[in-house]
Amino acid sequence: MPKKKIVVISGAGISAESGLATFRGSDGLWEGYDIQEVASPLGWENNPERVLEFYNKRRKQAAEAQPNKAHKALAVLEDHFEVLIVTQNVDDLHERAGSTNVLHLHGELKKARSEKDESLVIDIGSDPIKLGDTAEDGAQLRPHVVWFGEMVPMIEVAAEEIAKADILVVVGTSLVVYPAASLVEYAPPKIPKYIIDPEEPQLFNKKEWVHYKEKAGTGISKLAEKLKKEIN
Ligand code: APR
């Protein structure tokens, strides 16, 4: 009997209990920084050092953070289901918790790339990128992160995978940033859909969803138990 396919769409909220700031909550990242200055091509053009500093700080914080109960519960689900994590997060906490099938829609902090040739991507772990650090084409290295106004290369692949899901789980995302937020519309209409978030997320057809109105750590653990029981 083939394993059922669970697709999980995760956002900053799943890493909140690992100590990493979300974007739009109170003391969210965008309270302290201007998106245009630190996460846009114009910001990079105007002041690359300020952009590098912003991501160097976040890269260090992510490297020092540990996966939490939610990341781990999702990783264990792979024992019983085919699991794909479609994450908007640029940290590697899903991978470090043991998830083996993670698709990063918005890039990854631990990678850098040539500012000229986006195919020249290198692993930098938790190291900072400095002005003057160059890729093999001699161009300045930049964070391998999708900035506002840039294309989301993996969006089609993610949509195709969600269209094949048997179960859809959304956790820790305000669903306000497109095109990522549009992915929920690709799920087959009749499959079970769960959303884990202490707040009320922006869903169009709320009646199709079961809302675990709690933090990811408890919500994901409870849902994982329920799903495991249902297949036994
Ligand atoms: N457990 C679960 N959900 C939580 C928790 C928690 N402990 N804490 C906060 N949340 C929820 C919030 O209620 C909110 O709905 O997580 C969501 C975080 O939303 P955002 O801060 O908007 O983060 P996200 O949706 O991932 O942002 C999407 O925006 O800035 C861009 O590229 C960036 O990938 C990011 C994208």
Walkthrough of the structure:
The protein has 232 residues and is an alpha/beta fold. It has two domains: 1-20 and 67-106 and 150-232, TPP-binding domain (Rossmann fold, 3-Layer(aba) Sandwich); 21-64 and 110-145, SIR2/SIRT2 'Small Domain' (2-Layer Sandwich), CATH 3.30.1600. Helices cover 29% and strands 19% of the residues. It has helices at 29-32, 35-38, 41-46, 48-64, 69-76, 93-97, 155-162, 216-231, and strands at 5-10, 82-87, 102-104, 107-114, 121-123, 141-145, 167-171, 193-196, 209-212. It has a six-stranded parallel beta sheet with strand order 3-2-1-7-8-9, sandwiched between helices. A three-stranded antiparallel beta sheet has the order 5-4-6. A hairpin with a 6-residue loop joins strand 4 and strand 5 (121-123). The structure holds adenosine-5-diphosphoribose. The site of adenosine-5-diphosphoribose has 24 residues, from loops.
> So what's the CATH class of the largest domain?
Alpha Beta
String of helices and strands: EHHHHHEHEEEEHEEEH
Please give the number of β-strands. Answer: 9
CATH domain fold name of the largest domain: Rossmann fold
Regions with little confidence, pLDDT below 50 for 5+ residues: none
Any idea what the CATH architecture of the largest domain is?
3-Layer(aba) Sandwich
Q: Give the overall shape, derived from the CA principal axes.
A: globular
Describe the largest sheet: 6 strands, parallel
In helices, the fraction of residues equals 25-40%
The figure for the number of domains is 2
- Strand content of the residues, in percent? 15-25%
Q: Round the Cα radius of gyration to an integer and report it.
A: 18 Å
Supply the CATH superfamily name of the largest domain: TPP-binding domain
Q: Helix count, per DSSP?
A: 8
Please list the strands of the largest sheet in the order they lie side by side: 3-2-1-7-8-9
